[in-house]
Phage protein
Amino acid sequence: MAPRLISDADFNRKLNAPDRNREHTRAFLAKGVKPFSLPGYIPPAGYRLVMSPDGKQYRLLKDDITAYAVKIVTGKFVVPGKQHCTQVMVWRTFIAEHQAALNGLAKLIFAWLLETYEIVVSDNEQTADGRRFWEYRISEAIADPEYEVMIWDGTKEDNELQRITSETEFISKWSPYAWGTDPEIHQYRLLVISKIKSANPPE
């Protein structure tokens, strides 16, 4: 399962329209939420960060409107015995009044997920915006010796993990290898950012 490119996602269509956003947000709130404290982020006046009781969905809300949402799933199939998380929904509003509140939020949540789970894996379907988000995170991780960046290829018999050692290598080789539109191939190539050195493959 890897970054197969798709034109849009259902949650984008639901959250982009204000009336549907309110409906979607109220349904989320009706299931119960808890306050969520994100290191390095203080919600501006009128906003609140909340999470679902199971810790799988996080939202920045203003009243009954969602300004930002992320949903995660966990698994252990990429690095045997090591739990990883995947952001299966990442959405932010394009409405101007919310942009100051959203500044840096997606990057901070991604960093928190890496601290919490130590391995973050790309979703198996992404919009063009999702791809750009991952390209930024990969570029940052390659430049940071604290992290390792890899590609997991589920089309190989042994579910091969391959280290990505430079930004040039990523741009020229691995980006076109990972992203594409073939459902038989690109859903089974995943990008991996890891803090666990022992989980990494040899050079």
Remarks:
- The domain at 4-199 is CATH 3.40.630 (Aminopeptidase).
- The helical segments are 10-16, 18-30, 99-102, 105-117, 128-143, 167-178.
